[in-house]
């Protein structure tokens, strides 16, 4: 092992956040990313206050985030007759010290990539380099096996290897060769964006429907000064019989809106026209709602998983990207405490693997959208007074339980010290005794 360099397999949001964190604490790193060119893929995601706090501590600014999205103001669940089930303010309006942001995923990805190149250098990310496996070495280091885009192969040795290579992770597959296949619970999602006038607070996240048919939408841009229109991110979801498994080729593909819009015919109220929202998009992408069963550990000696490679989960809690950010910061904090060592990865694994595994299973149960299912079970989704269906305290307790599990309970987050103290550096491991 020549130095304490960390190899990061995967240049997505989690991998790039890991690189920025390691640079902040003085640890050299290299990101190996399979794609040949970084492009702004994906549509809207939410960054919870616990993740925004970490971005601020990394030196990203409000102006950076305002350039790729906007602060969320409200979270609302709505019944099938258009009446509110549950609403609450979000971000600083809710009492957090940090905002919640609704952002364009692809723009966030490119922002992080630009920050890595700016701070670490143009060679910090090697594109066209896919990590296919690893070997733990006798000296305590690790060697990553690499397939390059030109069909050549290579090896790179470092102190640690971080698997940030997504739900199809080759590193996870080697670490857990007997893992079950990707889990599909029967829900299919169609994602798209439509230019429209923001409703309610102007920055509201709205979930509407039941576990059988549901629409989620929220703006991911400030209104255009001339037209008043924002880019509205939407997800349309239908749950089917999944007894035969996923039969389509691939997990993410463009489809015509006519393939699914009929499920939402008649979803029109004086404040919302769902068919118009869907049909106003240029196109849509279809993908099944998938995750992976939890595994007992995210580490194998000097190798650790993070992000979707560790805990791919249903997006029902809007915390997939946020959790990847938290992973990166907890990894950094562990290296501050234990050095660039396998002990640091053990501390990271002990802190997160168990609780986040429980969150994966909680999200399978519809996460915070479980309130929609409760209303459907009790009254078929239509009601005059929600208090007669689910009392206010029961609704509040349900949401508080989810926030606590996901790590963004207000009082606990606001009072917590920084994950990584300003100016902290990773300790150097002590040399082995002669």
CATH structural class of the domain at 6-43 and 106-181 and 292-365? Alpha Beta
What's the CATH topology name of the domain at 6-43 and 106-181 and 292-365? FAD/NAD(P)-binding domain
Strand order within the widest beta sheet: 6-5-14-15-16-13-20-17
Give the total of beta strands. Answer: 22
Q: What portion of the residues fall into strands of 2 or more residues?
A: 25-35%
Helical coverage, percent range: 25-40%
Reported for the largest beta sheet, the result is:
8 strands, mixed
Name the shape in a single word.
globular
Radius of gyration, rounded?
Answer: 22 Å
Can you give the mean pLDDT?
91
- Give the uncertain stretches in residue-range form: none
Kindly report the name of the CATH homologous superfamily of the domain at 6-43 and 106-181 and 292-365: FAD/NAD(P)-binding domain
Query: What structural class should be given to the helix and strand makeup?
Result: alpha+beta
Q: What's the architecture of the domain at 6-43 and 106-181 and 292-365, going by CATH?
A: 3-Layer(bba) Sandwich
| Separation of the first and last Cα atoms | 17 Å
Number of helices: 12
What is the gist of this entry?
The chain has helices at 13-24, 49-57, 62-66, 105-120, 170-175, 274-279, 308-311, 320-338, 342-364, 370-379, 392-406, 410-415; strands at 6-9, 29-33, 44-47, 69-71, 74-78, 84-89, 101-104, 125-127, 129-136, 142-148, 153-158, 160-163, 183-196, 204-209, 213-219, 230-239, 253-255, 268-269, 272-273, 284-291, 299-300, 303-305. With 434 residues, the protein is α+β, with helices and mostly antiparallel strands.
